[in-house]
Amino acid sequence: MGRLIVIEGLDGAGKRTLANGIAAELTARGHSVARSAFPRYADDVHAELVAEALRGRHGDLGDSVHGMAVLYALDRRAAADALRADLRAHDVVLLDRYVASNAAYGAARLHQDSHGDFVAWVHELEVTRFALPKPDLQILLQVPTEVAAARAEHRERTEVDRRRDNFESDAPLQQRCGKVYQQLAAEDWWSPWVVVDGVNHVDFGALVGQHVLAR
């Protein structure tokens, strides 16, 4: 059975770059890697509805913290069997966002911390009720909010179809979300976490050797 590794962080933190570096290092060491990212906008109707709601469609759906969280959760539930199959077939399954994103962003929208009702509700829904595959490791790619925002703005200017949504352009929300992420990581919420500096150069070899492949 392979290891499930999750990369978490703010919009613009550099999660895709980190995933690319980890995957390249693992492949160079002879390990097979499967990758996925949530929400699965192109593959799941729940994620498609999320994207539309974040851009103002579907009435007041985007304003409902719990309503949006359920859509995110249903996207992952629909992917659960495929994740389990990937874990059976590969050494490492690498995810860009997972359940902790739901917990962090929803809590931040409600001005709660990691000990609030919302994080507990997400755990009950996705971990207990949906029984999603548990990560072996969650990596928090930590960057200052202003750095993440600048990267997200650059991505919006330079990449086709990467216009920022309502969450990505809300600076106070991103700041609160960063704090919830830090709490989740400090508490090893659901599974072990490691915090990686997303500003300075990441030593992919050390990260893979010390954490990703550790048993």
UniProtKB/TrEMBL annotation:
Record-annotated Thymidylate kinase-like domain positions: 7-190
Family that this chain belongs to: Belongs to the thymidylate kinase family.
Name by which UniProt lists this protein: Thymidylate kinase
Gene field: tmk
Keyword Amino-acid biosynthesis attributed: no
A Pfam family matched in the record: Thymidylate_kin
Domain of life: Bacteria
Keywords in alphabetical order: ATP-binding, Kinase, Nucleotide biosynthesis, Nucleotide-binding, Transferase
Function: Phosphorylation of dTMP to form dTDP in both de novo and salvage pathways of dTTP synthesis.
GO biological process: one example: dTDP biosynthetic process
Highest classification ranks of the organism: Bacteria, Bacillati, Actinomycetota, Actinomycetes, Pseudonocardiales
GO CC terms, sorted: cytosol
